[in-house]
Amino acid sequence: MSEQIDKFTNILRDKLNDIDDRLSVVKMTIESASQENQATIESKLKQVKAKLETKRQDLNTYRLELKKHAEEKQSEIKSKIDIWKTNRELEDLNCRADRAEEYAARGVAVALAAIEEAEEAILEAIAARLDAANATKFDPTE
Question: If you average pLDDT over each of 75-79, 80-84, 138-142, which comes out highest?
Fold first, then answer.
């Protein structure tokens, strides 16, 4: 039993490390944005948008599955679980544990996708700010 828990927590730890790494990349993007020109920002934005678009379908699927899981979880009554424990109904308890692990994994996937959406929004904001800054520098009378 402990081996299954260790395996699950290791998987989650790896996914959380991936999220941490991704946040570090986003942070570096923000920090370096003021030194980059419009073309570089727009190029990064296009890359992020393309990557995000390929993941949108998975994200929507994950969100639906998270919602479904939440509804299923509400239908699970504590007394039912207590009965499973009392009667040692391992198949039901294992199915419940599997669903809970899948729910956690989907939650991490949604968090990672949200980070990518935030990066897209950040790059769009930086590009918009650069547009505004360039417009104030432009003097049509010159």
Answer: 80-84
Any residues with CB less than 8 A from the CB of 42 and at least 6 apart, and which?
A: 127
Name which of 26, 56, 54, 34 is nearest 121 in CA terms: 26
Domain-embedded: residue 142: no
pLDDT of 142 over the 60 cut: no
Tally the domains of the chain.
1
The residues, ordered by sequence, that sit 6+ positions from 73 with a Cβ below 8 Å of its Cβ are: 103
Residue 33 structural domain: 2-135
Asked if the structure places residue 141 within a domain, the reply is no
Residues 6+ apart with CB under 8 A from 51: 116
Nearest one of 35, 3, 26, 39 to 116, comparing CA atoms: 26
Task: Give 61 or 139, the one with higher predicted confidence.
Answer: 61
Q: Per the domain annotation, does 61 fall within a domain?
A: yes
